[in-house]
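Let's inspect a concrete specimen:
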Amino acid sequence: MEDKKKRLRIAMAGWGTWGHVFPIRSLLEFLYKNKEYGDRVEKIYRFWAKKSLEQQVCSDIQEDNAAHKLVFVPIYSWKYRRESYRRSKLKNISDFFLFIIWCFQSIFHLLYHRINIVFCKWGYVALPVVIAATLLRKKIVVHESDTRPGLVNKIASRFAKKVFTWFEWTLLWSQTVGQILSDDIVIDAHPEFTTKTQVLIVWWSQGSKRLYQNILHILEFIPDLSSGYDFFIVLWLLSDEMSTHFDKFPHVHTYGFVSQKKMGELYNACDITITRGWTTSLAEQKLYDMKQIIIPIPRTHDQYENAKWYVRCHNDVMINQRDHDFEAQLGNAIKHFKGFKKNRIQKDKRSIISHAKKIIRDSLLSA
């Protein structure tokens, strides 16, 4: 009976984008490999919305190994809309009353599943879970990956037992441990050497169609880019629509959906990346010492702050997509790095990646 009391039930709430989902999967798998896991943890509950990427990833883990003791718990939540449109404001008001119901829903799940610890990463769906955990005096552990914390983590950090961050001074009373990255991106082998500058373009899917069209124009109208470069473009959901436009360029290689391992191979091979300001992607790319041309999503603040940090600390380049001469700036940035080859210093990437996960794991299992 005494041993059973010591066994933990952990709720993981948060994240909602590719850049958060796969690192958390890596954290879960890191927990499973720990020798204390089987003795200390009874179950892990994954709180998020139905029919989501999180639910699919949870199902994949359950299929891989039933001994992981992972349970998906579907919940509802409220997203605070910062737009100034009247419709958004009215939606915020109506959803606020529903949000109270969703908090009671989270209280029910925490009590019903006898949760001891709530781990909050990011994302609006985590907010009612955090509030419920606070009211029930459950242990809360937070990890904030951006330079500018989101609303949920700002609230959660006020009541958390432990707060971890990637960047220093992001949240009060926090411990800077680094980013949570997936081990799947680690490639130990040296890529085949080429004198050409290898350029990786990966913008995910949010508002990216125009950017790929900009790249098409640049490739067509700047002759200097026809030699000295190889371009590797990850199109994701736009692969069927856009890939045929790039086929006429022999030095351009396009991909649709790529696995984490394939992404690691591209990081390993390429010298420069043209990317958004997602903090996980930036950290993954810098793990491979890539020079970054960062184009933040215009409507976000966190991506601009992330980009500014990399410009300041690593002398990378940030370009504002809303500038009237954006395409010219991007073309000039690519031309500027002609002949650039990154430092290919061997380093223990697995140890670097495991640092943050070890500290978070020990905090979770020490309850």
